[in-house]
Amino acid sequence: MKKNTTIILFLIAVTCGSVVAQRTDFIRDRNFEGGLYAKTAWVGGGNATLIALPMVYSMAYTEDLSFDAVTIPAFAFSSPSNSSVLRLSNTKLRATYVWNNILIATFGAKVPTGLNGFDESQLGTAGSIATRQLGFRNANLFNTCDIMAGVSSSLPFKDAGPGDLSLGLGLSYLYKIPYQPVAGADVWFSPASEFNISLAGEYVFLAAARQITLLADLGFTVYGADEYGETDPVEVGAKFNWALFGATEMVPGLPASVRLANYKKGANTQGRIGETNKEASDLIITLKHGLPLLINSAPYGMLSLGTYSGGGNNFGDALVTTIGGGVSPRLSEHLFANGEVGIDLGELGGDFVFGMEVYGKIQYKF
């Protein structure tokens, strides 16, 4: 029977995504990844641009204990606020321990590598990059200090009907330490901490030489309260998400997958004011298929459609389509690469959306 590795690895990604979002596998050897990410997006007459250089180093200390680290130099610019941000962001450390192939425990921290203290125009740039409808990766530009701990596990069920079933559970807690977000103001912001519950199930069909896999996952996040200076605390609404994923490689060398996901977020509320924004609901479907090109680099095409509703007062409902593709060549025995390009077309709050995205990375396995 196929071991329940995939579901455990998935739970690592879900449970520990806040700490080291770039890694989705348990480290058995030493690896180094260096990448380039660039995206620019226009909404109406405004533009936001981000260039980032994510770097990841991973190593296995023992067969069951691994460590990894991430740091991301980033440069952002937005035309509405006419300001730029250049800093080393998202420096994170994580330890992962597998106990008897039953339980995975993780502990990580985000380490501040510079001061915050954005001025008003820089806050506008950081906010534009973080707009969820625009889909920027590496969008958190603040140098905050966060601490996370989590556990996850799974159970396999062999020959459950026409296939093999794995079920998993992940729990994690993310504590966010207060920081000063505004330059020249002695005011501290204490962001809401998070408690996450993740449930997932993987089903691999015995038919078709195990070339069909189905994955379903559920997530629930409970937040504390945001506190800023002497103002009333803001209660952050809970978040619920689900996703369905199917993958197959019925045609050798041409893998295909489809993913449907829904993210729902409750409204933020403030004591004396009441509801301060609308409940958010995002529905995203993504198709990915290998391309029958006669090149030895595993080319693939992608199509994504996202609908966004609710959320903060500054951003309206949106419909965004992304068309793109990528290649994943193996350059040598130890060197691997991946590159993607994408174009966004859509509408946000009545304004036309156009975006371009490029991503590439090189991984060296020692």
End-to-end distance, in Å? Answer: 30 Å
SS summary, helix count: 2
Tally the beta strands: 22
SSE ordering: HEEEEEEHEEEEEEEEEEEEEEEE
Helical percentage: under 10%
Rg of Cα set = 21 Å
Mean pLDDT: 88
In terms of DSSP E residues, the strand content is over 45%
- Sketch the major β-sheet: 17 strands, antiparallel
Structural class estimated from helices and strands: mainly beta
User: Spans with pLDDT under 50 lasting ≥5 residues?
Assistant: 1-24
What shape does the CA trace take? Answer: globular
Explain the overall architecture.
The chain is mainly beta and 366 residues long. 6% of the residues lie in helices and 58% in strands. The chain has helices at 5-16, 120-129; strands at residues 31-43, 46-52, 55-60, 65-78, 83-99, 103-110, 146-160, 163-176, 189-190, 194-205, 212-223, 225-228, 234-235, 239-248, 256-265, 269-270, 274-275, 278-290, 300-311, 318-327, 335-348, 351-365. It has a 17-stranded antiparallel sheet that branches. It has a five-stranded antiparallel sheet with strand order 9-12-13-16-17, with no helix packed on it.
Keywords:
mainly beta; 366 residues; 5-stranded antiparallel beta sheet; 17-stranded antiparallel beta sheet
Short précis:
This protein is mostly beta strands. 6% of the residues lie in helices and 58% in strands. The two termini are 30 Å apart.
